[in-house]
Design brief:
Elements (H helix, E strand, L loop, with lengths): L1 H15 E6 L1 E5 L8 E3 L2 E3 L4 E4 L4 E5 L3 E6 L5 E5 L2 E5 L5 E5 L14
Antiparallel strand pairs: 1-8, 2-7, 3-4, 5-6, 6-7, 9-10
Keywords: Signal
Length: about 110
C-alpha cells in the first residue's frame, strides 16, 4: 500500500511539472589516457558509477571517457505553475508557492 501511495504521489507530481530542462555533459579521454576515469578525485573503472552529493552529479565511466548528469536540484530546471524551487542540503529540494512560501507544492525530493 505504501508503494502505491508513493507511485500515485510521483504521478501527481509529474502531472504538475510544466517544463523540465536537464543537464548532462561528457568528457572523452585524451590520446594515451584511459580506460580508467578520474571522476571527482576517484579512480574509476569502466562500468562504475560515482555519485557526488557535493556536486549533485552522477557520473558513469566508459572506455571512451565519462559522462555526468545532474541529480537532485541539479537534475535540470523544473517549473511548476505558481511554485518556486527551494534548494535544501544534499541535493534535496522542494517546491513552495511563489506567493506564499509557507505553503508547500511538493514534499521534499531527494536523489
Amino acid at each position: 500500500m505504501e508503494v502505491l501511495k508513493k507511485l500515485i504521489g510521483v504521478g501527481i507530481f509529474l502531472v504538475f511539472i510544466t517544463q523540465t530542462d536537464a543537464y548532462c555533459y561528457a568528457h572523452a579521454h585524451k590520446l594515451g589516457e584511459g580506460p580508467r576515469c578520474s571522476i571527482d578525485n576517484h579512480d574509476v573503472a569502466p562500468g562504475e558509477i560515482v555519485r557526488s552529493l557535493t556536486q549533485c552529479e552522477e557520473c558513469n565511466c566508459h572506455f571512451w571517457g565519462y559522462s555526468c548528469c545532474g541529480i537532485g536540484y541539479n537534475a535540470g530546471t523544473m517549473h511548476i505553475a505558481d511554485c518556486k524551487m527551494v534548494k535544501l542540503g544534499d541535493c534535496c529540494y522542494e517546491f513552495v508557492q511563489s506567493s506564499n512560501p509557507s505553503v508547500k507544492c511538493t514534499d521534499v525530493i531527494c536523489p
